[in-house]
Predict the 3D structure of the following.
Amino acid sequence: MEGYMKGLLYIIYSTLFYLYSIFPINDNKTTFIMTHDSSVNGNIMCMYRKVKEKKENHVCKFITKHQLKPKNKFELLYQGLKFIFITPYYLATSKTIFLDNVFLPMAYIKFKSKVKVVQLWHGCNTLKKFGQLSNTGKIKELEKKANSRYTHVIVSSKKMINLHQEAFGVDEKIIYPLGLPRMDIFFDKKRIEEEKNKFYEEYQELKYKKIILYAPTFRDNNVKNLDANMNLSDIIDKLPLNYVIINKFHPFVSNNYTKINSERIIDMSNYKDLNRLLLVSDILISDYSSIVFDFALLNKPIIFYAYDKDKYEKTIRGFYYNYEDYIKTSFTTSKTELMDQIMTQSIYIDNEQFYNKYVDYKDSEASNRIYTILY
């Protein structure tokens, strides 16, 4: 029944899109589809600021995940009507469209030839499979059609071209290794200090703490009981008192996570700005998440806690590469080893070697490069 209703809504959506297509394309209008990363320093918002910086009077419209996931019945009605009846008009009349995720309604529509549809994605690079390679059945079919609408796919390096070509099923000619907008900040010392100060104004009690950021990747098969795999209380109790752990879980996980009652374990899964968390953190603990690429640019210790590597590789999503070859360092699967690595930082990634391999541009100009080829 749910699948039938979604299909019906997609048909209504596409019908309205084609009705609105009688209106001309507005060359001075851009729509930003932000259905994954709503942070102020995500790829979408970085490009939005660049567009407004260059074109102050440019018309910018947004389609966000909040429209797709209303909190109550009133919002469901309001956002639902707005999404169905208004957003097709945005798409039908915009010259440029940016996305940070797959937008399935695009499977049912086709744009005029002059429209530029730009996939920025929401991560940097990736080890785990994503896009068409991580889905099956009807969803995979819809993704394939939606992905075929792209005119530009932006990646961080030439090495990422083949990977994104497979994930999106697109011609490599439309893939541009220009760098990602969200990474500009990591090469801008002034902005780094500004963002850190903003964080400490909000969380003054953390200013002189040693911050460990725990940010595991999303596991398709387990949105609950993540704390059973990683008992943070056991770890923090054995660390010096100046250490704190900040959790940053995937949005699908955070609502089901069993919160730990501790002043030294802080859940910031709903904190809007991931980049800001990376900037203030001293150590990152992750596994297969693409944020390790961002953190590597800061030249800080990264500890790989891959407690379920074999299971993840065989039964969940799987990897593009051999995990050990990819991270170029050892990883731990036990809390005992994890504790030792936190204290000694004896085993962590060679940051420079890592990001040199997967990031072509070491500057804060990715947004400018993207803007230049589009406007």
Notes: The longest strand covers residues 26-34. Residues 185-358 form a domain with the Rossmann fold fold (CATH 3.40.50.12580). The chain has a mean pLDDT of 84.
